[in-house]
Specification:
Chain lengths: 299, 539
């Protein structure tokens, strides 16, 4: 080993990863308000099982939500792929391209009709018959209209798929809409995992909840899972008491934003915006780019 | 007899890309690169507060997260002629550096490796031989249980549910690695998939979260209270773990692939390069950059020129915008106009940036070659070492292999430099100066994102954004033809590529992926009119 710098302790790489995995399972349990006895059950549910099929669609997006999920350590991304789900379609990761994957999309959706989870990342451009977003010479709108009704349930991951997000910010040049707005006649249940991007712990918690209980989570009036969006950020913020780091004077939107960021933090509990001295921008609320501005009260 | 093939969607990129090529006698004779998503971020930014723009601009891309936000902030600071304190400058360099050391290995393993390694072949590898190979290629890497990896892959394949590996071009003649090499790289693919989680943590220490950190403001960074000995120690520890990974796993793998696929030093190359330079080393002299700026024309490393921004123009002749006038970004004035996909006319949402009328490649290879030509004292030995190990010459760098090599080289060089920068942080010292945002003015923010040269041009009036234009790396690399009919870099780089089987275009994907396309960033418009109207003819 190169002596110019220290590396970790005596634990093997595998042991370190297992420790991170269980810690993350703990975070998932916390998010779902399950007690510590659930941690091994969560671990087991995530790493063994039938691997329900998942089709992941990318529309008018920045891929930040995919990247957010990649930061998960319970399960690790490789465990998610090998043990938890069957990720049949995901353009960022798939080996094949072009006609090959177009075929996979259609075949998987038809073969697993009524059984697959559809994760949607990004808004759907609807202006001018949807020509602002095309894949394989088809509009994203038409792909959504074909695939989404075939799903068992839809997870709109991120604020763009939930409510339109950045592309839908005024003046919304492409008529971008979230899934529920773009497909108003959709009969399939939609879970809005809002946030820009959302915390992967919450995404995994939705999966875990389904694998453990066979059920979709209770949703609020914005179709967001109650367990992650029931509290305002302000009501659970550690800096309500510790005034030095409180960002209220800077324009913090924590009083009007529901999300569990201060409880579970980001990146294996590393930090969250107020901890690094920046106010909350309300990124889990509908149309926050337009409703929460100005983001700063001072210069 | 010429045939056309279309790859749409191109996978293992960021965003939405369509590639069309013409093949004659098994070789690519022409190519067209098309961005197929348009969001209109520049229009969305108009009328908003300049100091908030970075929050929106950051969402141009969640892969190269942070960097678009940083460029936006710089454009405003430039308009204000505002210098930021050392702690702020250093934290920003560490944030950008964290992005590089996350992004580049993920690109190698998860976005491009499947073009070179055959996962199915790994199933027939001899595990003992694989372990021997690992001890030769990456002796310093943590031990891997190849039996377990192979069993995991076997179970996965046996399940019949191959997930992202379904539809791969396994068995294609272009895959020439041995089963043992394939198993080793497959194991590293999985290892790297976990390691990148650590790189995300790294950026979150001072950034609050990753993706989309939240610690920037005009004047510096907001995380002053986190610049403690403890947090700096955490950062150093994770950084060193990433350096271990880069030195012992990532870079040796890139070297090995270069040795194993020597023919790809003659394929996928371009000739012109540009970099704005990055990682400012001084708060008083903005020209002092760790990676220097420069322009190379026609592969001439001996004549690296300065970058003159006035030479930049964006063409729309073959893009879905009204008109055909090429404009300097600060005067960019276009309206989207979708006329249908026509390779003989307009065929992309991307504009075609040109420098002095020439298409330019930007990104790791541009930065590394410009640094090499200018004698940057960390890049030169790193490049020479790579060339020596890989058995390549500097001329071979103008290629698919060169691009991949440059990406790994700069990851190592930047990661090592981050140790020095970290040591310069002063706990307790100011990380931000608060200043009233100007009511009117113009500014330019320049940056080097992992994928290349990035610029935001801003015009502020009545304390609001009046005009905003972004010219981003993938527009340079993956843009279409210009008014003069010159192909963009990827279109040019594809010419001469052998294609063994048009149904399985691995060779084309190798070159396209070597540019690390990021299309979400690359597509944009500006719209000065209050009332915009869209003329659409849907085919």
């Amino acid at each position: 080993m190169n002596p110019k710098y220290q590396t970790g302790g005596k634990e093997s790489a595998l042991e370190l990863h297992r420790r991170d995995f269980l810690k993350f399972c703990g975070a998932v349990a916390t998010a779902l308000s399950l007690d510590i006895t659930f941690v091994p059950k969560i671990a087991k549910a995530l790493t063994s099982g039938d691997r329900p099929p998942v089709i992941w669609l990318h529309f008018s997006e920045c891929t930040g939500c995919t990247e957010a999920i990649l930061r998960s350590s319970a399960p690790w991304m490789d465990e998610l792929l090998f043990d938890t789900i069957s990720l049949d379609y995901h353009e960022t990761l798939m080996a094949g391209a072009g006609h090959t994957v177009e075929k996979i999309l259609t075949e998987s959706a038809l073969t697993h009709q009524g059984e697959f989870f559809c994760v949607v990342e990004g808004a759907i451009p609807t202006a001018d018959n949807g020509i602002y977003g095309m894949i394989g010479s088809r509009t994203m709108l038409s792909i959504a209209e074909e695939i989404l009704p075939l799903a068992k349930a839809i997870i709109s991951i991120g604020s763009c798929a939930s409510f339109g997000g950045l592309a839908a910010a005024a003046p919304n040049p492409t008529g971008a809409k979230g899934v529920i707005d773009a497909l108003p006649d959709l009969q399939v249940p939609v879970i809005n995992l809002a946030g820009c991007p959302p915390n992967p712990v919450n995404f995994m918690a939705v999966l875990v909840n389904y694998l453990l209980q066979g059920a979709l989570p209770e949703l609020d009036n914005y179709s967001r899972p109650e367990f992650a969006y029931k509290d305002t950020i302000h009501s659970i913020c550690p800096y309500r008491k510790e005034k030095k780091l409180c960002q209220k004077q800077e324009g913090c939107k924590g009083q009007w934003t529901r999300h569990n960021c201060p409880n579970i933090k980001f990146n294996q509990g590393t930090s969250f915006p107020m901890q690094v001295g920046h106010p909350c921008i309300g990124c889990s609320e509908p149309n926050f780019w337009d409703t929460m501005t100005p983001f700063y009260k001072t210069s | 007899m010429a045939e056309r093939i279309v790859i749409d969607p191109v996978t293992r990129i960021e965003g939405h890309l369509k590639i069309e090529v013409e093949i004659s006698n098994g070789v690519v004779t022409d190519a067209w690169s098309s961005g197929t998503l348009f969001r209109g971020i520049e229009t969305i930014l108009e009328g908003r507060k300049p100091d908030e723009a970075w929050l929106l601009a950051q969402r141009l891309c969640g892969v190269c997260t942070y960097i678009q936000g940083a460029t936006s902030i710089r454009s405003v600071e430039d308009a204000m002629q505002l210098a930021i304190p050392d702690n702020g400058r250093i934290v920003r360099n560490l944030m950008a550096g964290s992005l590089f050391i996350h992004d580049h290995p993920v690109h190698f393993y998860h976005l491009s490796a499947l073009d070179w390694i055959d996962i199915i072949s790994a199933l027939s590898a001899n595990v003992g031989t694989t372990a021997d190979l690992a001890s030769q290629i990456s002796p310093g890497a943590p031990a891997i249980d190849f039996t377990e990896v192979q069993a995991t892959l076997q179970n996965f394949v046996d399940s019949g549910k191959l997930g992202p590996f379904a539809g791969g071009y396994w068995g294609h003649p272009a895959y020439t690695l041995s089963p043992e090499e394939n198993l080793l790289f497959a194991a590293h693919y999985l290892y790297a998939l976990r390691q990148q989680v650590k790189a995300g943590q790294l950026q979150a220490i001072f950034g609050g979260k990753n993706p989309h950190p939240q610690n920037l403001r005009v004047g510096g960074v907001t995380c002053q209270e986190e610049l403690t000995t403890a947090r700096i120690g955490e950062f150093r520890s994770l950084l060193n773990e990433m350096r271990d990974f880069i030195d012992q796993v990532y870079l040796p793998d890139v070297v090995h692939l270069a040795q194993a696929y020597p023919g790809w030093a003659q394929l996928g190359g371009f000739r012109n390069y540009m970099s704005y330079g990055e990682f400012p080393l001084s708060s008083s002299d903005p020209t002092e950059l760790f990676l220097p700026c420069g322009v190379i024309m026609d592969k001439n490393l001996d004549a690296v020129d300065d970058v003159l921004l006035a030479q930049i123009s964006e063409h729309v002749q073959h893009s879905w915008y009204q008109g055909s006038t090429a404009r300097y970004p600060q005067e960019g004035e276009t309206l989207p106009n979708f006329t249908g996909y026509d390779t003989a006319n307009r065929y992309s949402w991307l504009k075609a940036p040109r420098y002095n009328g020439e298409p330019m490649e930007v990104g790791p290879l541009a930065r590394v070659l410009i640094s090499y030509g200018l004698g940057q004292n960390r890049i030169v030995p790193a490049v020479d070492s790579f060339l020596g190990q890989a058995g390549l010459t500097i001329d071979d760098m103008h290629s698919t292999l060169g691009r991949s090599g440059a990406r790994a080289i700069e990851t190592q060089v930047v990661a090592d430099a981050m140790v020095d920068w970290l040591d310069q942080l002063i706990p307790g010292a100011t990380a931000r100066v608060a200043a009233e945002i100007i009511a009117s003015g113009t500014g330019i923010g320049l940056n080097e994102a992992p994928r290349g040269a990035l610029g935001h041009w801003i015009r502020i009036n009545n304390a609001k954004i009046e005009h905003y234009q972004m010219v981003v790396p993938s527009t340079w690399n993956l843009g279409p033809r210009c008014a003069a009919g010159y192909r963009g870099p990827v279109e040019e780089a594809l010419i001469g590529t052998p294609v063994a089987n048009p149904e399985q275009p691995v060779e084309i994907l190798r070159i396209v992926h070597s540019y690390d396309p990021c299309l979400a960033c690359a597509v944009h418009i500006t719209d000065n009119d209050q009332e915009s109207h869209y003329t659409v003819k849907v085919i």
